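thread: overnight batch results

M.L. [08:02]
morning all. the overnight job finished for the chain we discussed friday. pasting input first so we're all looking at the same thing
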Amino acid sequence: MQFKRANRALRKLEIYLGRVIRDITRKIDGDSGLETKFASLLSLARRIRAQERGQRGPKVYSLHAPEVECIGKGKPHKPYEFGVKVSVATTLKHSKGGQFVAHAQALPGNPYDGHTLEAVIPAIEQLVGNTIERLHADAGYRGHNAPSEYKFKVYTSRQKRRVTPAIKREMKRRAAVEPVIGHTKEEHRMGRNYLAGRHGDANNAVLAAAGYNFRRLIRWLNDFLRIILALLFVQSKLLPVLHGRQDNHRVSAWGFCQSRDVRNIVRAQISSGGSCRRVDRTRDVEQ
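M.L. [08:03]
and the structure it wrote out:
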């Protein structure tokens, strides 16, 4: 019964849309200016009315963004996503500033993952200015179309042939790209694009990756500044006792250092100086 009611409602909407299309066509007949203005909208409306559920090829999923594609994820909690496919590449080794995005590119047309390497690999090398030694990808890149010189440099998940112990250890780092994708989608607007058209999709992918990298750089510079301030306060003997106003507050003597590495450096400086007396983690001080 539910499917019958749904089909009846769908047929009624198709009838309404057909009436609107015919009515607009009659009213603008003979006016070249109005026909030019309504050409794209009428074409989009006719595509929506003619398309079927199981048809192959491109379909219209959104009126305000007809370039949107249906991407099958294959996950139980989210089987489909609507948008454009984006390729994200990171370095294999974790740098001191974090896991940076080396390349991001929008791939319209919903291509097969393995068939994107032919365009992605040259773009990565052009961007970083170096040659890729090895490329680790997930199982969706099997049967790839990488350039001939990279045919034996691409390794996919659960691959057994040509996998040495060193490459096997490297393949464990492939999953490092997953949290990077998650952060760019949730915190840097790659998951929801507010820019229109195909050019908006391409620009949004690059801007999201740039924003993610800038956040990593700012966080690294913040830690570096904390190290400098902590060393300056230790050398000037201002870290144990601070004098100023009469207001008493609970101030952490380690407030300048939040990361574990920075705290270890400051502890080493205090223990080697010898002139600074021991400071509790929190104490009453006067500002």
